Amino acid sequence: MGEDTEPTDDAAAGSGVDGASDASPRRDAAGESDQFADLTEADLRETFERADYVAEDDIVTTVLLALRLGKPLLVEGEPGAGKTELAKVLAAGLGEELVRLQCYEGLAAENALYEWNYTKQLLAVQASESGVTEDSDATGDGSGRGESVFSEEFLLERPLLRALRAGGDAPPVLLIDEVDRADEEFEALLLEVLSDFQVSVPELGTVRAPTPPVVVITSNRTRALSDALKRRCLYLYVEPPTFEKEREIVRRKVPELDAVVAAELCGVTRRLREEPLLKRPGVAETLDLARGVAALGADRDDRISREKLRTLLGTVLKEAEDVERVDEALLDDLVAAAGEAREAVAEIDGGEAVTDSDGVEPAERTAGDTDDPT
Amino acid sequence: MTPPENGRRPGADPPGPDDFVATRDETLDAVVGFARSLRAAGVQVPANAAVEATRALTVVGRTDKSAVRAAMRATLLSRREDIETFEDRFERFWRELRAAGREPPAVLEDLADAADPPGAGLPAGADAADPAADPSSGERDEGAESDDADRESSRPAGFASATDEGTTGEGATVEGATVERARYSPSGGSETVSRSVTLDRYDLAEPVARLTDALGTLPGRRRERSGNGRFVDARRALRASFQTGGVVPSLPEADRTDTDVRGVVLVDVSQSVLDSIDREFLLEWLRLLVESWRSTRVFFFDTDVREVTDAFDERTVEDVTDALAGAEASWGGGTRIGHALATLRREAPEAVDRRTVVTVVSDGLERGDVADLETSAAWIGRRARLFLWLNPLAKSPVYEPTARGMAAALPAVDGLFAFAGPADVTELARQLERNDRTRLGYRYDPRRSGGADEPSSTDSTATIRT
Which chain B residues have a beta carbon less than 8 Å from that of A32? Predict the structure, then answer.
């Protein structure tokens, strides 16, 4: 790492940058990361299984490719399709730290990369009036007078820098969430980070990731991303789940709910998605609904009633206009759809579904479940 | 840890260690070709995508179809909108990849496509249309033959015979059947323009020359008298001065006549149009327009628009076909006319100005949003010198523009004309020569009025006007 830091820069020498000084970035000329060279599709699938993440084959293959080729993964899809969850599961499954950068309009470099702790700097200068020099090229003569206020001590790491420096044996998973919300300037900043996995801090030198982080970028497609960014990424579009897949997700995430009732609820959301709603319910909403029903207590033979559905609408519909749209006729339709789904599932699975859902051990990650797939 | 040359993951189906190396060239060809064909179809494929795709193949191997599909999707695509196009083409790519470029099926298929172009893109579900398709293609061949015969005889006679053909009862029923058969193009599934379409030849030079003369939107070399022209008409001044003993009382002026044409031609190459028009005729007509107009831009559209002007910069239809094939132009997909016009408006607004003749060749069987079509057509109607719509279906004597796309565009269009053969080009030229812009269109086509107009009378009109 010595060649990466400025020669005059003793501040950097004592910083976290140093920790990785001998490990040159672990990527060969082709940019392939050997970190995951022995990772197989089966391993990855098992990882997803363990985390109760229901992933289709193409998702597994694409994630594997991203890991093997060492490229960022750009995930797009409807809100609530489980994009963020994918990164979380990946971090948990690979046993790595998850560094999350939530994008928003006006997100600037200092919130994403690093900041100097100005207050602390000021206090430090005041505390030892003449004892602290402001420039970084002090020679550090051991008298304690050469300390710079631009040293590690005063650096506030923000997600991107943290992800780059957090390396070690297990590179972190860097989740850049909803990148479409950030401005285009921020995309340009990302380009530098994503192509070389390095960042220049003028006072400290260049920080390069010892092992490139696994990068997952999610986008809700509210605006088109720049070609340059897309070119650097592998693309994954998460399809809205099929009825079967959704049922499976509910079954795994809300194991306390009976399989037939879960099917009923999936039938309800499936029917709701056909309506021209402002905000269509995603999987996350189905899960909310399922948890709501579970909290109220639902029996296997207890068909969902209109009253119950009406009280629970708030878990699925998040816009006042959408809630208003649900009139008596639609409510009838929803109940009918629920009944249909119940019968279809009861027919296929019979009693088997019950044992199945009972067989699943209570979710280990119930805490993590509450904030998931959006 | 990285496996040697073919970094296949250990758990993959082992297609033999040398498999990838052995077929490397073919694989590269297939991947690059696939990326190009996606690009040609309007998919936004990143510039380095083919390289990434090939690298991805070394990881997932080439034996597992769904893995290959996921790898290709991840590397070649960057927008959700493109997924459908991708899926349409993936099967073909998969075959090529499996065949590793050596097996004959793909080649044979191309040949089969070339041998039977009109039906090639029809889905299997269109069985009902097949019996009807036969008479129509027979009818078209017959028309072509009679055109061949016409060329040997004189032009007016040819025109008369074409008129006859259109007005006979038999012709009418056949045409009627054709109209009833008109159906919307299936979405997707367009085919690359095949290199070897050679059917009949059309002599369009004269009709197109007449058309060019009649259209004239740009000042050419010829000069004509003018009240306030840019040039002094020296010859006329000299001649006039003889009467006044060498004094020039007033300077006659001249200006350039409009003899050149600037045009934009938008050709609907959806399946429904290609089924009702002869491709050879269409290409020859376009080639001549590009050749004889001052500036012509040709766009093909079905579900997407692409400019193909460069391909028509050739001497013969064969060369044009080759050039189109070389440019990987495709045809025979679904129809989104509104989208096409809107794209033109958005991406090449400079193509249409007040000296431009905009010609749309389409059957008006819109599958996209009709409101789009209406706005964009209105924009062209306001902006262009002349907005012509050539509709292959309008060759039927009983045709009325009732298709919702056609009906939406009609108010903006200056003239809606039949378009199925050289006779139609002649008729178009004839109407334009009358220089009466209020009475243009299929309604004023004398061949249409069910025999009320005697062929001879049309004939004479044409001659007088010429």
Answer: 2, 7, 55
Is residue A341 packed enough to be buried (19+ CB in 10 Å), middle (13-18) or exposed (0-12)? buried
Which of the pair, B64 or B259, is modelled with greater confidence? B64
What is the reported pLDDT for A45? 87
Contacts of A30 in chain B (CB under 8 A): 55
CATH class of domain segment(s) B118-217+261-466: alpha beta
Work out the pLDDT band at A133, boundaries 50, 70, 90: low
Q: List the single best residue of B5, B6, B8, B9 to mutate versus A (max A Cβ within 10 A).
A: B9
Q: Which residue from A273, A214, A223, A251 is spatially nearest to A80, judged by alpha carbons?
A: A273
**Interval B262-308: pLDDT, tens:** 889 998 888 778 778 887 888 888 888 888 888 888 888 887 888 88
CB contact under 8 A, B78 and A68: no
Residue A131: predicted pLDDT: 53
- The minimum CA-CA distance between A62 and chain B, rounded to whole Å, is 6
Would you state the pLDDT for residue A348? Answer: 64
Beta-carbon contacts of A100 under 8 Å, excluding residues fewer than 6 positions away, are A87, A159, A175, A177
- The minimal CB distance from A76 to the residues B2, B70, B80 is found for B80
Is residue B51 packed enough to be buried (19+ CB in 10 Å), middle (13-18) or exposed (0-12)? Answer: middle
Contact A363, A253 (CB under 8 A): yes
Mean pLDDT over the full length of chain A: 76
Q: Which of A190, A207, A238 is the last residue of a domain?
A: A238
- Whether residues A295 and A203 share a domain: the answer is no
Instruction: Write down which residue in A176, A211, A238 finishes a domain.
Output: A238
Instruction: Domain of residue A9: give its range.
Output: 2-113+159-238
Q: Judging by DSSP bridges, how do beta strands A114-116 and A155-157 pair with one another?
A: antiparallel
